[in-house]
């Protein structure tokens, strides 16, 4: 794209301001220098924005690939320093790394930083993401041997500790990060115990039936999986090193390393007093990524994207979505950039999609299985280890899970988008006959009735 074409496009996009600021003097501040922030900045430049861009990041590192941390970095196949995201172009941006945003004053259009500096903005993108939920006891969390897996530094330190071959690793929590960490430990030949208070791993995302299949996968690969209980306390020796964990069921475990994988907390505290609608699920925004204030009105100059965003999706209108996955951060950031440039003309309606590798198995999900009230295996077989499960809510398909059959999901994404009925009528050659629909309940004492067949 020539400079002349870029300038013409920018003038067209900011034509309503031609008698005030020009596009070349607009200042876009991006609070959050990670995946969403980077892609928003790239989209702005791709579409001819010639003004200033400032990216602010609490971490000292340029944007890097977080999914690789709990997969390839912990296993030693990739150095933490080699996870940086490639820059597809020179952004001509100012980077303020190693300093967190601390406040937002929408009246003066100013963002305050932790180092005492402040920045004025014409457009602001909130992309501060989330952080790992810490172990609740600060003294126990500070023991040598207690780790999280969220940042590049976390992964570097934990990978080094795993390479030193601890006697036993304890993983607290069996969501995707916890399960991936346990998988890496077994790959390295390490003894690992996973403690999960739910009936099975991954139940929050995929429901109990799929979780029971995941539990069998854990145990088949030698994981000491303890479900229906939780960790009461972490104990250290006289030198401040982790040595033991006590569980609520009365048992004690001798452990050298503990990985706390209890989910994430949105980085929203800096928005206190901003007047924006902020909850534990994130910063609420409209489908065009415009932040919504406490009265429900969108702010045209404050946008939201990535893990910190919470927004309405037309296919899941029972409650706003909050998604912590790579694909969503990229797509939402580009919609936010389009809204900055064009106004509210392009909504963020992409289906959530994510994947995981655990114990040599590829797991891919589309839609929102956590919203479902029914599930059914519609292709393949759980016993054979390769299958597709469809998720339904009120008679409509809302999600799908593919285990070692990733190519099948495109068809299910189309069904979800078309609001197809559940269970889907596929007539697939590898489909069970008949299809068995399992009810998803918040709790069920007869867990055998919930096993996927």
From TrEMBL:
Q: Which InterPro entries does UniProt cross-reference here? A: FAD-oxidoreductase/Apoptosis, FAD/NAD-bd_sf, FAD/NAD-binding_dom, FAD/NAD-linked_Rdtase_dimer_sf, Reductase_C
Q: What is this protein called?
A: NAD(P)/FAD-dependent oxidoreductase
Domain FAD/NAD(P)-binding: where?
Answer: 27-333
* Cofactors: FAD
UniProt keyword list: FAD, Flavoprotein, Oxidoreductase
At the top level, the lineage of the source is Bacteria
Reductase C-terminal domain segment(s): 354-426
What are the coiled-coil residue ranges? none
């Amino acid at each position: 794209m020539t400079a002349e074409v870029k300038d013409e496009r920018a003038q067209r996009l900011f034509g309503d301001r031609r008698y005030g600021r020009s596009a070349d003097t607009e200042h876009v501040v991006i609070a959050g220098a990670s995946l969403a922030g980077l892609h928003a900045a790239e989209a702005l430049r791709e579409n001819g924005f010639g003004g200033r861009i400032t990216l602010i990041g609490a971490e000292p590192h340029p944007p890097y690939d977080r999914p690789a941390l709990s997969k390839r970095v912990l296993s030693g196949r990739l150095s933490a320093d080699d996870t940086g995201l490639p820059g597809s172009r020179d952004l001509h941006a100012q980077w303020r790394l190693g300093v967190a945003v601390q406040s937002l004053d929408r009246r003066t259009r100013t963002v305050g930083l932790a180092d005492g500096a402040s920045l004025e903005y014409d457009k602001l993108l909130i992309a501060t993401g989330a952080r790992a939920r810490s172990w609740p006891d600060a003294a126990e969390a500070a023991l040598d041997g207690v780790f999280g897996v969220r940042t590049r530094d976390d992964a570097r330190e934990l990978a080094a500790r795993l390479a030193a071959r601890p006697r036993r690793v304890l993983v607290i929590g069996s969501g995707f990060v916890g399960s991936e960490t346990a998988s890496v430990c077994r790959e390295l030949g390490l003894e690992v115990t996973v403690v999960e208070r739910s009936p099975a791993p991954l139940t929050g995302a995929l429901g109990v039936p799929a979780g029971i299949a995941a539990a069998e996968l854990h145990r088949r690969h030698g994981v000491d999986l303890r479900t229906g209980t939780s960790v009461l306390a972490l104990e250290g020796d006289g030198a401040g090193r982790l040595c033991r964990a006590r569980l609520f069921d009365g048992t004690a475990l001798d452990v050298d390393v503990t990985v706390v994988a209890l989910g994430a907390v949105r980085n929203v505290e800096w928005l206190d007093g901003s007047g924006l609608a902020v909850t534990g699920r994130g910063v609420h925004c409209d489908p065009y990524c415009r932040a919504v204030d406490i009265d429900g009105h969108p702010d045209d100059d404050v946008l939201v994207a990535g893990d910190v965003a919470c927004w309405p999706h037309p296919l899941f209108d029972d409650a706003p979505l909050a998604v912590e996955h790579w694909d969503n951060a990229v797509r939402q950031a580009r919609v936010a950039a389009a809204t900055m440039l064009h106004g509210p003309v392009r909504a963020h309606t992409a289906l959530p999609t994510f994947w995981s590798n655990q114990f040599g198995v590829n797991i891919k999900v589309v839609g929102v299985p956590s919203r479902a009230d029914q599930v059914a295996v519609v292709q393949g077989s759980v016993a054979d280890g390769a299958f597709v499960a469809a998720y339904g809510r009120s008679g409509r398909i809302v999600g799908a899970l593919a285990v070692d059959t990733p190519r099948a999901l495109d068809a299910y994404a189309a069904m979800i988008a078309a609001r197809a009925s559940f269970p889907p009528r596929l007539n697939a050659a590898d489909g069970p006959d008949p299809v068995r629909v399992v009810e998803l309940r918040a709790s069920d004492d007869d867990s055998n009735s919930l096993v996927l067949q």
